[in-house]
Amino acid sequence: MPLKLYAHPFSSYCQKVLTALYENGTEFEYRKLEDAESMAELAALWPLRRFPVLVDGGRTVLEASVIIEHLHIHHPGPTRLLPDDPSAALEVRMMDRFFDNYLATPQQKFVFDRLRPEADRDAYGVEEARRALVAAYGWLDGVMAQREWAAGGSFSLADCAAAPFLFYADWTHAIDAKFAHVHAYRRRLLARASFARAVDEARPYRHLFPLGAPNRD
Ligand SMILES: N[C@@H](CCC(=O)N[C@@H](CS)C(=O)NCC(=O)O)C(=O)O
Q1: Which residue has a Cα nearest atom 15 of ligand 1?
Q2: Closest by alpha carbon to 209, among 18, 9, 30, 31?
Q3: What's the 49 CA to ligand 1 centre distance in angstroms?
Q4: Most buried residue, 16, 21, 22, 55, by most Cβ within 10 Å?
Q5: CA of 5 to the centre of ligand 1 (A)
Q6: Quick one: CA dihedral 88, 184, 25, 44, positive or negative?
Q7: Predicted confidence (pLDDT) per residue in 26-83, tens digit
Q8: Whose CA is nearest to atom 9 of ligand 1?
Q9: HSE-up of 42 (CA within 13 Å, CB side)?
């Protein structure tokens, strides 16, 4: 039975999983959430309706990081997205948590705020998110001064997370030019074939970006 992925091409968390799937040429059935039928199936699987969701046989797997861990265990390929060494794997998971919690979460705050009715917007919360993003860019710049990929020398789960979150974070609150290591890392991620494919598949949806997609990348 093929893997089924419920996802939307423009979603950052979906691109995180798509990057992992493309990295290893893993076959799957793409249940695109722009189709009402796929959305109804997603709602039946996961009432919170957040995506991506993976179905592998009788098992429903939630959360992008856990989906990638599932792929690593049950559908491994040439790119080992988690190292065998438990201590090295901890570094990958720590960086993955950094990208989810301190890049994706504040970045989504801007986007979700813009989607609210104007009277319900949260200027204070958005300013907090902006400060968090700037602090995260600064911390990451120091880390990436020494590394090619997020957790060291090889592409991993953490890079699958970094790629879409840095991509959209720079659109949302531009990464200052002084963070040259973050910019160089973002360029390496954009040049990686697996992520470049996810970006290309999402091009037709750029008009959906509520903050106005810049004409680049
Ligand atoms: N913690 C979830 C987050 C997933 C998430 O936030 N997905 C967004 C799309 S990028 C979503 O489902 N948005 C729809 C909504 O919030 O209703 C994960 O790691 O997969």
Answers
A1: 50
A2: 9
A3: 8
A4: 16
A5: 14
A6: positive
A7: 999 999 999 999 999 999 999 999 999 999 999 999 999 999 999 999 999 999 999 9
A8: 11
A9: 22
Region at 49 (left for phi over 0; alpha for psi -120 to 50; beta for the rest): left
Integer Cα distance of 73 and 80 in angstroms: 10
Q: How far is the CA of 27 from the centre of ligand 1 (A)?
A: 23
Going by alpha carbons, the residue nearest to atom 11 of ligand 1 is: 50
Structure tokens at 87: 């201590």
- 3-state SS, residue 56: strand
**Gap between the Cα atoms of 167 and 133, Å rounded:** 13
Where helices occur in 24-63 by DSSP H, the ranges are: 36-45
Rounded distance, CA 33 to CA 73, Å? 26
Ligand 1 pocket (Cβ < 6 Å) reads: 11-13, 49-51, 63-64
Calculate how far, in angstroms, residue 200's C-alpha sits from the geometric centre of ligand 1. Answer: 20
What's the number of CA atoms in the CB half-sphere (13 Å) around residue 158? 25
Query: Is residue 129 predicted with pLDDT exceeding 90?
Result: yes
| 55: its two tokens | 């179905």
Q: How far apart are CA 112 and CA 121, in angstroms?
A: 9
Distance (Å, rounded) from C-alpha 22 to C-alpha 96? 18
Interval between CA 9 and ligand 1 midpoint (Å)? 13
